[in-house]
Amino acid sequence: MNILITGNMGYIGPTVVSHLRNSHPDAMLIGYDMGYFSSHLTNVGLLPECLLDRQHFGDVRMFDDAILKDVDAVVYLAAISNDPIGNQYEEVTLDINYRSAVSLASSAKKAGVNYFVYASSCSTYGFAVQEAMTESSPVNPLTAYAKSKVYTEKDLEPLASDDFRITCLRFSTACGMSERLRLDLVLNDFVASAIASGKITILSDGTPWRPLIHVKDMARAIDWAIERPLDAGGPSLVVNVGANDWNYQVRELAEAVRKVMPDIEVSINKDAQPDKRSYRVNFNLFRTLAPNHQPRYDLDTTIRELRDGLEAMAFKEQNFRHTKFMRLKIIESLREQGWLDEALRWTFYSKRGSGMGY
Ligand SMILES: NC(=O)c1ccc[n+]([C@@H]2O[C@H](COP(=O)([O-])OP(=O)(O)OC[C@H]3O[C@@H](n4cnc5c(N)ncnc54)[C@H](O)[C@@H]3O)[C@@H](O)[C@H]2O)c1
After folding, report:
1. How far is the CA of 357 from the centre of ligand 1 (A)?
2. Fewest CB atoms within 10 Å of the CB: 108, 247, 256, 310?
3. What is the average per-residue pLDDT within 79-105?
4. Average pLDDT over residues 24-42
């Protein structure tokens, strides 16, 4: 099997690559990434991309279809991957997360690819706390990021056929260690705060709901989707990916961290306005369709793993919310240094009109 993974050099990508390398030792694994965060490795002995057969550096907005030759499955992770960046770069977010994904899927179909897996998000539900949202509940995308996911799901569907199976995995919020760790994700942020300052300050009133999933469990779901049988959802499937008992309120997450590190302080801003993003999600469909690829991690183990991983890095940065552990800060720094233009293209290439992706 030949598998192309776009956006493989981010937080989730290295875990997906290492999982697929184990589950498909004979597969040809091909990475494709722009490399925004490539130099921000966390305590690794091996460059994660060494597990690939081939790494392309390129921009999905200028994708060369020749790369799809003999590819059987595409996993589309490339994205502007959170609300803060999406809010500042709305059109760029739609171009990368949405238009380029649909265009690449269309090229993939023409090239004879059989499976297209899209990393969607439960944030498409926006605000939904009365009951847990199923795939047939209405979506309510509140941000450019969430909109990009909803638009893509909708425009991918008509491309699907028995021979070109499309799976949109609506992932819960990720957590856990990775070779390119992000700390702009709720649980990772709490553990990092606990280690760096002995304190977790919840910026909301603590009530918002967030379903979570460990990055390694995301990789297991992707592994299922790249060979999804037709009778598990048909040619086109949108499915929530996570576990029913991993729906947490933010304050419960802080308390779970305190259980592992009892000396820390947790403070909640009782006067804060309720967060606009809050959703509970039902994962029954995923459990029925993919019984052998269900999440395995528990919260306690995930917190301990993050704590141990951060301690092994001698992590002490109290102001980490302003550092390279935040995706937005890296993008801002690349912009300030003149490496990226306003469309988040590498300036070196955009000036001369050739090079990566041109
Ligand atoms: N992390 C989460 O909580 C979460 C939850 C649900 C869904 N997802 C989705 O999973 C995917 C991966 O998330 P992540 O946390 O690894 O994000 P990330 O920001 O760490 O990684 C995204 C990768 O995409 C690459 N990329 C961005 N624009 C590109 C372009 N134009 N061309 C080529 N590559 C480009 C970046 O260089 C980066 O390596 C994203 O689609 C994200 O929306 C993530």
Report:
1. 18
2. 256
3. 97
4. 97
Q: What separation in Å is there between the alpha carbon of 81 and the centre of ligand 1?
A: 5
Nearest ligand 1 atom, CA 13: 16
Pocket of ligand 1 contains residue 101 by CB under 6 Å = no
Alpha-carbon gap, residue 114 to 170, rounded angstroms: 20
Which phi and psi angles does 229 have, rounded to 5°? -70, 150
pTM here is 0.97
Reported for 226-231, long-range contacts at CB under 8 A and 24+ positions apart, including other chains, are 226/1, 226/3, 226/20, 226/73, 226/75, 226/115, 226/117, 227/1, 227/73, 227/115, 228/115, 228/165, 228/167, 228/289, 230/162, 230/165
Residues 120-147 pLDDT 10s: 999 999 998 889 999 999 999 999 999 9
Please write the tens of the pLDDT for every residue from 249-259: 999 999 999 99
